[in-house]
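Help! Submission page says 'invalid entity' but I think these are all valid:
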Amino acid sequence: MPKLGMQPIRKEALVKATIVEIGRAGSLDVTVAQIARRAGMSTALAHHYFGGKEAIFLAAMRHILSIYGAEVRGALAVAKTPEARLDAIILASFSAANFRREVISAWLNFYVLARTVPGAQQLLSVYQRRLHSNLLAALRPIAGAKAVPLAHAMGALIDGVYLRAVLRDGPPDGQAAIEMLRRYVAAELEGRPE
Amino acid sequence: MPKLGMQPIRKEALVKATIVEIGRAGSLDVTVAQIARRAGMSTALAHHYFGGKEAIFLAAMRHILSIYGAEVRGALAVAKTPEARLDAIILASFSAANFRREVISAWLNFYVLARTVPGAQQLLSVYQRRLHSNLLAALRPIAGAKAVPLAHAMGALIDGVYLRAVLRDGPPDGQAAIEMLRRYVAAELEGRPE
DNA sequence: AAGTTTATTGACTCGTCAATCAACAAAAAA
DNA sequence: TTTTTTGTTGATTGACGAGTCAATAAACTT
């Protein structure tokens, strides 16, 4: 009963299964068999479509990154003032879609993956640069000379909040994270604009 | 040529070798054989002294945590004002001993380990609670009601800076990290003390 | 109708690795 | 001196997992 045009469907199923399995395992110690089983196919098929485990991981990473990117882009498009743009980035970073256990766990493990796999390292660098330039663009008009260090600090703070969310038991508290970021921005901007 | 009293010596060698190997590999995908070889002994001996791989990892984690803890304690002991205590924590967090590639890499991977191994989870929780209460004690007199959220944010920021240091190629820049933390504290405290 | 491309899997290979064990050696205790 | 404790390793076991392959079948092409 083989139907044609399965490739994209299978690939997507594998990518989603990978994220779920990494979330469950809490690490990259996930077998191709586990991923394939969850995606409802044999391991051979997974290899057939992706060629290897590393490619599956990279595709999963690309998937998460692209969802996040799309959300940020969408939110920025409707934001008119620099303040609104800054807030849009913060909100997107901790939205229900991104700030979920599974996704956070995957994120953490992609950092680990980036230490070994050049492709992962590169993907993560792209994400960081994009975040930084988005932050900078929003901050420049309202933070003056402070913009650059502030953007760096915000990036690190966002990553840190993600990291800490991994350890907690319950569901991650996106609202608290958003308030933490907003409070910091407010504190920095409230002083003299230099 | 077996000498007596080897146990502590062997254990320490294994712990140090573990940290080095995790740093090299950039992940927990490190074999007992690699660790044992670097520590100058057979894999059987490593198992003999620790009983298993997990115990070796936990010992390595305890080692890093205890060095960090000792450094913070030492710095706090000589700091007399709340401001000095706060700065002492910041300085210790990014000291040359702690803010090194190997150690940072180990740190990141211990976060991953904590998702799977209850013992690791517990160790990390202890560290986080201690850091939080140290920060809180220093902040309370100078930050008033802001102290609690500020302590949380600083903890997250420190972790975030660590996380980002992992990705960069060159040696981590402790000085820049210290300045980022100081600027953060300054910005938050500069407003009305509420 | 014959041939080609796409989908799919069970079975297999090959390597790796944690853990165990039997055996040997030296010091300490008896 | 015999026995026990401590240190040490090479060799082996047993499990698991990534990747390959041959085989089967449905759909599309000519």
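Support: the input was valid. A stray whitespace character was the problem, and the output above is from the cleaned input. Chain B touches chain A at residues 25-28, 105, 108-109, 111-112, 114-116, 121, 124-125, 128, 149, 152-153, 155-161, 163-164, 166-167, 179-180, 183-184, 187-188, 190-191 (CB under 8 Å).
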